[in-house]
Design a protein that fits this description.
By secondary structure, the chain is an alpha/beta fold. It has one domain: Isochorismatase-like (Rossmann fold, 3-Layer(aba) Sandwich). The protein is built from five helices and eight strands; from the N terminus they run βαββαβαβββαβα. A six-stranded parallel β-sheet has the order 3-2-1-4-5-8. α3 runs parallel beside α4. The longest helix has 18 residues. It is globular, with a radius of gyration of 15 Å.
Length: about 180
């Protein structure tokens, strides 16, 4: 069996209903993330937490020093779990995530977090492009409604489209229950 690592992307207060960028279904996704993280810890699977900040205040969200950038209390990293701060959508860009995976001899990754259509998407594609087999636990991820050219796309459809794209060419996509019974 390949050495697996769990990447928890941007489960931060900014996405809660009290944050500046609330996501549809974030509470359910976070509850599933808690289960996936607990399972990883029980099995000795390394957990890597990603925390987004916009370093120079270029956006009104993920502002350094605000409560919004803090990781949600339900998924607080354990002492031995690294927290990798990123300033871009892609968790690998200008961070040491790849080096940390290599240092732990990670050969495949499981990804959970937010937002399905942005940071999760970028992380999944980057990991796959680097040769990692990727599993996405779809119900431990969340997103929001999007608007394009006057058309609103509901979060459920945004999420489904992303998961379908992952499954088509980038990742194995499973539910929390399925993941926990096969891990």
């Amino acid at each position: 069996m390949k050495q697996r690592g769990l990447i928890v992307i941007d489960l931060q207060n900014e996405y809660l209903p009290t944050g500046k960028l609330p996501l549809t279904g974030i509470e359910a996704a976070a509850a599933n993330a808690v289960r996936v993280i607990a399972d990883a810890r029980e099995q000795g699977i390394p957990v890597f937490h990603i925390r987004h900040e916009f370093a120079n205040g270029e956006a009104p969200v993920f502002v350094p020093g605000t409560d919004g950038v803090n990781i949600m209390s339900d998924v607080t990293p354990a002492e031995n779990e690294p927290v990798i701060v990123k300033n871009y959508v892609n968790s690998f860009r200008d961070t040491d995530l790849k080096q940390q995976l290599e240092a732990r001899e990670i050969e495949e990754v499981v990804i959970i977090g937010a937002m399905s259509h942005m940071c999760v998407d970028a992380g999944v594609r980057a990991a796959a492009d680097m040769g990692y087999p990727v599993t996405v636990v779809h119900d431990a991820c969340a997103t929001l409604d999007l608007e394009f050219n006057g058309v609103t796309v509901p979060a459920a459809q945004v999420h489904a489209a992303m998961m379908a794209a992952f499954e088509f060419g980038y990742a194995t996509v499973v539910s929390t229950d399925t993941y926990l019974t096969r891990s």
